[in-house]
Amino acid sequence: MRRYEPVFYIAPAFIVLAIILFYPLGYSLYLSFHNWTLRDFRQGVPFVGLKQYINLFSNPEFLNAIRITFIFVIAAIVLEFILGMALALLLNHDLKGKGIIRSFILLPMMCTNVVVGLTWRLLLNYDYGLVNYLLSVVGLPRLEWLSKPALAMPAVIMVDVWNTTSFVALLLLAGLQALPDEPYEAARIDGASWWQQFRYLTLPLLRQTILVALLWRFIDTFRIFDVVYLLTAGGPARATETVSIYVYRYGFQSFNLSFASAASYIMILIMLVIAAVLARLIGRQD
Known about the structure:
Helix content: over 70%
Order of helices and strands: HHHHHHHHHHHHH
Largest sheet: none
Radius of gyration: 24 Å
Number of domains: 1
Strand content: under 5%
CATH topology: MetI-like fold
């Protein structure tokens, strides 16, 4: 009996987690195969099979949301990796005041996404924003960062890069500091340049850390909602409407919960497939 005693201690926590996590997931999956709308749910929730999923892939707005999401994810992750790697390589050297520099770099991580979104919304304001003021000081025209479709997506990407590059840099720095010194000493004796050491030693040895950083950032970026919603709410002209914003619009503005649930599960499926590929690459040993 004492063998099962720990089960009684942890069972309440698991029951609470199951209620909080699995019930909403199961009910939303149920809704995705039925027709639930605010107007007629009292008359019943009829089973419609795969109709919601078929309608999704024939809906140009949903396809546009997927395209916008992948543009945002790829652009943000590429920039964050390049800048994060540069910062990690810089901080991996003995610099004066390295601790202070590291503290300043990590400051964006300490801000919540709501604070980041509201702050940058003020900074990018056309009339009163600091960014446009600095542009006018150097003689450049003011830009409609958040109200012009051509600039809204670069602005949102810029905010996400500012917010999370420090996280990528921290992960890569931890990986760099764990690398062995012997291969680098041998490479220097053989006359390898800095670029050759980085290309043929650092990147291969850092491969799993890079994949972990990419996996973490992909999951976090693909489901992003709060920063984008606070900056643009998916506009202008749906130029920044990610899948999360699309689901919010149908679920909590149009109250078409079945359609929103189906879109959510398509989003989850895409995330699971790509995350599984990255996780498999992490586990591979060359």
